[in-house]
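Section 5.1 Outputs to date
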Amino acid sequence: MSLYLILEIIVITIPLIFSFDKNLRFYRNWKSVLLSLILVSAIYIPVDSYFTMHGIWGFNPHYNSGIVILYLPLEEWLFFLVIPYASIFLHYTFIYYFPKVMLNNNVSRMLSVFFIILLVIICLLNYPKTYTLINSILLTGVLVFSFFDKSGIINRFYITFLIILVPFLILSAILTGSFTKEEVYWYNNTLNLGIRIFSIPVEDVGFAFGLLLLNLLLINKFQKLFKR
């Protein structure tokens, strides 16, 4: 079994078990969550495939199963189910136990506007750096989309993401070679900013934020739809 797959199994096991907790009963959201994961994957997987096809990043065959679909190992396909599910579960768990912890609308909007402006500047100054450019465009799109959402999800997510970021950085550090002889996946550093958190490109933080926020926004919409 590959290291990448072992890590994914470890990550998903506890959230799956506690999805049946008598208080949380997160399993009741499975229909909305699964539909969202599929739709968001349909956006992000082609981008991942493009990155791999053009050498913007790549995967070490020593650390994956060798089953490759559209230039991506099986484990990378599973990534878009496992990591978002575990992160979304953590988000909902935090909300359940701390329902009043959130930013107000004005602070949340100010943060979003700040990040959008920052991302536009980064794009303009670094447009030849494909990894930076595409990740910045994706995150900008998700932040703009969040402006049309009236549920206040982003007000909570700005806080819960800081919690989610801890296990995300640990997992990403392992995958990018902080604790192994070789990287599970590597990056072409001429096509990103070259700024690292441990061994993780800073763009990956924005990638995770956009990926998870888009899932949460869609899950909320699907929950309302299914209730009708």
